[in-house]
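User: ok so my PI wants both of these folded by tonight, can you help

Assistant: No problem, let's get them done. Here's the first:
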Amino acid sequence: MSKNRWFQISGFAGIVAPVIAISCIFVAIANYPLFVWTDNALSDLGVKEGLASLSFNSGLVIGGILALVFASGLVGLFFESKMGKFGAVLFSASSLFLTCIGLFNESYGSIHLFVSVAFFTLMPVSMLFLMSAFALREEQATALFTLAVGLIAALVWICHWAIGFGIGVAIPEILSGGTISTWTVVLGFRLIMRP
């Protein structure tokens, strides 16, 4: 398989991954009428019987696997950049933790807590390293976009702990995840169109 073909595949995976994950989350919410944004965590959906848990958990597993494929394209994009490769490796690790959130739902207790915290911590940190890599390549617009995404993904959590969106964490989870998803889609298109 040619390098360009792999960039196209990984870019497509980067576009599809968040679409699947977020769509499955909202399908799960639609099938659990007692879900309240201010009172629940999104992971609460993963332990409800029926379509809610099936949709939520499978969406995260599939989305995480596709995000790993996308991350392999990031590694190729930054093959000669230590900063970029490290950022891509952190993104890969956070994608693996996203998969683990679906595999190890809340019934797994501390394991679920660990993989969830790891995902929401590593993803913004990976943005900082990737931002630096783009800046070193003098791609200032992409660097600023990546920095903004990383900051927003982290700041929603800081705001939650400082001010609070409610007793649950669903709001910072969807805001942080949605922000990263936007970046993934944009970079996915970039990989597809890469000459």
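One down. Here's the second:
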Amino acid sequence: MARRQPGKYDAVLQDKPRMPLESNPSRQMEIDQMKEREYSGMSAERLAMEYSIARHKRDLLRAQESELQLQLDTLMQMLVDSEDQKLDPAWGAYGANDNAIRLPNGDTLRINKEPASTVVDPEAFRQWCIANGYERKLQLHAGTRESIVAERMLAAEPPPDGLEVGTWSKLTFTAAKTDE
């Protein structure tokens, strides 16, 4: 039998208790059930083989998910372009709003415009943040910045100094309701 190569922390951790690998109790219950149902009594080599198989499956799924996301992003951009041009009669058909397409199966795709901003003058924006009560924020999160822009636009106020405001299109997909 091969000798175990010590890990760099082995000497300092030898007296420390092992912490649970899963901190979520309901998740741990699922794991315990699967241990009993699927893997009980397996040798370490067989467990390692099962782990290897599962990792390869996950890697394949991630690659497929990446390809599907590329496809979804491409289709979304093409749908946004189509909705912007307002030339296709599918927009607004079957009782849908002008910014939506309802499919024969009941699925609906809707394009909504939402405010978006880019910081073009960081110092001007920083000064605006200080003057408007955001000085305690070390860094203003993009989502917070977008919320400020949206609120000011709805109130017919100008955007914060240092920002360029435009729009981005958000596609919302609503699947048809099924009996399942």
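DSSP finds five helices and three strands in the chain. Residues 95-174 form one domain. Good luck tonight!
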